[in-house]
Design a protein that fits this description.
- A 5-stranded mixed beta sheet has the order 4-3-5-13-6, sandwiched between helices. The protein has a 4-stranded mixed beta sheet with strand order 8-12-7-11. A two-stranded antiparallel ribbon has the order 1-2.
- Helix content is 42%, strand content 23%.
- The protein is an alpha/beta fold.
- The protein has 3 domains: 84 residues, Winged helix-like DNA-binding domain superfamily/Winged helix DNA-binding domain (Arc Repressor Mutant, subunit A), CATH 1.10.10.10; 97 residues, 3-Layer(aba) Sandwich (D-Maltodextrin-Binding Protein, domain 2), CATH 3.40.190.10; 98 residues, 3-Layer(aba) Sandwich (D-Maltodextrin-Binding Protein, domain 2), CATH 3.40.190.10.
- The protein is rod-shaped, with a radius of gyration of 32 Å.
Amino acid sequence: MQINISTRDLRAFVHLAQQRSFTRAAALCHLSQPAFSALIRGIEEQVGGRLFDRTTRQVELTVEGQTFLSAAERLLQDTEAAVSDVRDHVARRRGRVSLAVLPSLAAGWLPPLLARFHQTHPGIELDVADVLSDRCIARVRSGEADFAIASARVDAPELRTEPFCADDFHVVFLRDHPLGQSQGPVRLSEVARYPIVQLARSSSVRQHVEMAAHPRPLHSVLELEQLSTVVAMVREGLGVSIVPALTLFHFGEQALCARPVQAKGLRRRVFLVRRADRALSSAAQGLYELLMANRP
């Protein structure tokens, strides 16, 4: 037999069990007494037994009614807790957002925005992975990240990719370097005359630079994983480095200078990537809207 008892029915039953009066319980449920009596009879028919002993002077729970009361109160509490939890998530009082983002954005542009989001929604847990593009995409594909900001456009049916921002490239060097004798943009062919401290081949920065320089090879003296290490090497005069504009805050030292680099195709496009088959949670949607409204 299919059971069809609603929370309204359970609440009516609990009111009658507490009030021991059809009149008072019906009033609490905003029902007429005949309608309320019919509702209680319907519940008893659903469970297949009497839940109340009725006399002209009082109403008492049967043994079966006592058993059902405990279950009904528990079900109502669980339902109210579940609804409250969902409302908290929808209102962005609770929840969790997981974001994968390029290190160049994670270190400079992102922190103030995350701080603003956390101040507005302190109950939402934040998870940030500062990883290279391939791992950004992998985290979205696997469901580890709600969305990612990466420098790779992915054409896959399960992913949705939208433009986020674009980034020019600069060469950074010691103040007394020959490149410092002029100001303004410098051609990549001129930069290529000097030893270059490069990021690892797996980085999108390295890939963009080498594609723009092709077929002319660059004179790489070092290949490094971390921008902070690149800064230290350039500071010590081991070479110059070509980096996106969004990373220039790493090189903000008096001993260093930067100039824009001109080369065909030397422009990094950055994308926001998310699952195409899943809607963002309310919390993730809130962070998504904040980041899109404050793109670099």
